[in-house]
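Support reply, case 0932

Customer input (verbatim):
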Amino acid sequence: MFKVENWMIVSRSQLLIDLLESRWPQEFLVRLTKAQPSNMSKLLSTQTNSIVVFDLATIDLQQAYQLQRVIEREYCGVRTVFLNFPKQVDATFLIHPSTTTGVFYTNANLADVSSGLNEILKGRSVIPQDLYQSLMSINHDDDSEQLTIREREVLQTLLSGSTNLDIANQLFVSESTIKTHLYRAFRKIGVSSRGQAIAWAQTHMHEVRV
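Our regenerated output:
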């Protein structure tokens, strides 16, 4: 007997939801739950889901990051998939090795998505090769030992989605000082953007937390 999987789609696009709802349950033996960003956590607490699919065309990247953090902290075993993942914006900070199992760019067609979802149902991860290589290129060596206490504090605040001004206010320093700390921290951990720094911190903050 085939097992029916419970998946959740978090999107503000009713058209996308209707399309997926009409196709996925028959093709993948999936029972699909519709959710808005505002009620995702509540719905997850009332039912068992194996996959949460985020539609990044209708969800702000920072909001998607916060929602994934909720899943990481509170719903062990739930994996995440990102649809409409942007190519022109550095969104690698969304991808977490313990939860992210699928990424589909904005130009992926329905056939590509269907093929990828079949692989995910078989327990495999589906992440574009170029994106995977980009993630692997982030330096994960022992340079974090060279971080100063202040640099560690600044990296910690990145995980909360704080702006440079927010961080400056929290640490009672100027915004330009925060930019300097970020520049030095980025160089030490081998990243070149805020998104990559967040991706690095997601994996390594347990090593650099003060």
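We compared this against your earlier run and they match. Two observations from our side: Confidence is low (pLDDT under 50) at residues 139-145. Strands lie at 5-10, 30-35, 51-55, 79-85, 100-105. Please reopen the case if you see a mismatch on your end.
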